[in-house]
Amino acid sequence: MVENIRIHILVVDDDRGILELVRRSLEHEGYQVDTIEDPSVVLKINLEWYQLIILDVMMPKMDGFSLCAELRNRVDCPILFLTAKSEEGDLIKGLGAGGDDYITKPFGIGELRARVAAHLRREKRERKHLLEAGGVQFQIQAKKMSYQGREIPMTKSEYAICEYLAVNLGQVFSKERIYEAVYGYDGESDASAITEHVKNIRAKCKQYGLEPIETVWGIGYRWKAE
């Protein structure tokens, strides 16, 4: 249970009884669980804290499939559906909307816990190649970064600077330390190049409404958490 203490799960269902059942069951395993009855509220909150999201399918205002499709523009964590429907067409629709799994009501508590644990284990392995910091998503292996589903074009050096700061979220580094981390001690330029790269990064990010790199005067730069 201790290893789950920092894992946050969001559960969305218009049935208060189901919400309470799921919440108690998962909190028993050590997860931190937030519940929401109104699906329209979900898109208004900060979703970066959640490692897994559980959605009911049949809800007023917005069904689970539509909500999932919207969420996929903002998160890449596992999304599980809770639904009374079991037809193959609904399953295909749910997975096509970006869902990762499908649990049919009525469900057993043991099954729910096992599915959640399995997806979190898989997510932990895959996260080695994915990173999100301050709303920006990084594909570590592909060396790409994006915001709300749109890729932010960066040069190799610009991406390397962003990744280094994002991996060390909130920490302040001098331009000399950033230069060493990106180019090594044998780099052919000098640390002043970092200032110009940061200027270019900021200009590109500004086009997406982002200002992720903060200057800490007299010290250096850091990637903002929000």
Automatic annotation (TrEMBL):
<keyword id="KW-0238">DNA-binding</keyword>
<protein>
    <recommendedName>
        <fullName>Stage 0 sporulation protein A homolog</fullName>
    </recommendedName>
</protein>
<feature type="DNA-binding region" description="OmpR/PhoB-type">
    <location>
        <begin position="128"/>
        <end position="225"/>
    </location>
</feature>
<dbReference type="InterPro" id="IPR036388">
    <property type="entry name" value="WH-like_DNA-bd_sf"/>
</dbReference>
<feature type="modified residue" description="4-aspartylphosphate">
    <location>
        <position position="56"/>
    </location>
</feature>
<dbReference type="InterPro" id="IPR001867">
    <property type="entry name" value="OmpR/PhoB-type_DNA-bd"/>
</dbReference>
<keyword id="KW-0902">Two-component regulatory system</keyword>
<dbReference type="Pfam" id="PF00486">
    <property type="entry name" value="Trans_reg_C"/>
</dbReference>
<dbReference type="GO" id="GO:0032993">
    <property type="term" value="C:protein-DNA complex"/>
</dbReference>
<dbReference type="InterPro" id="IPR001789">
    <property type="entry name" value="Sig_transdc_resp-reg_receiver"/>
</dbReference>
<dbReference type="InterPro" id="IPR039420">
    <property type="entry name" value="WalR-like"/>
</dbReference>
<dbReference type="InterPro" id="IPR011006">
    <property type="entry name" value="CheY-like_superfamily"/>
</dbReference>
<dbReference type="GO" id="GO:0000976">
    <property type="term" value="F:transcription cis-regulatory region binding"/>
</dbReference>
<feature type="domain" description="Response regulatory">
    <location>
        <begin position="8"/>
        <end position="120"/>
    </location>
</feature>
<feature type="domain" description="OmpR/PhoB-type">
    <location>
        <begin position="128"/>
        <end position="225"/>
    </location>
</feature>
<keyword id="KW-0805">Transcription regulation</keyword>
<keyword id="KW-0804">Transcription</keyword>
<dbReference type="GO" id="GO:0006355">
    <property type="term" value="P:regulation of DNA-templated transcription"/>
</dbReference>
<dbReference type="Pfam" id="PF00072">
    <property type="entry name" value="Response_reg"/>
</dbReference>
<keyword id="KW-0597">Phosphoprotein</keyword>
<dbReference type="GO" id="GO:0005829">
    <property type="term" value="C:cytosol"/>
</dbReference>
<comment type="function">
    <text>May play the central regulatory role in sporulation. It may be an element of the effector pathway responsible for the activation of sporulation genes in response to nutritional stress. Spo0A may act in concert with spo0H (a sigma factor) to control the expression of some genes that are critical to the sporulation process.</text>
</comment>
<dbReference type="GO" id="GO:0000156">
    <property type="term" value="F:phosphorelay response regulator activity"/>
</dbReference>
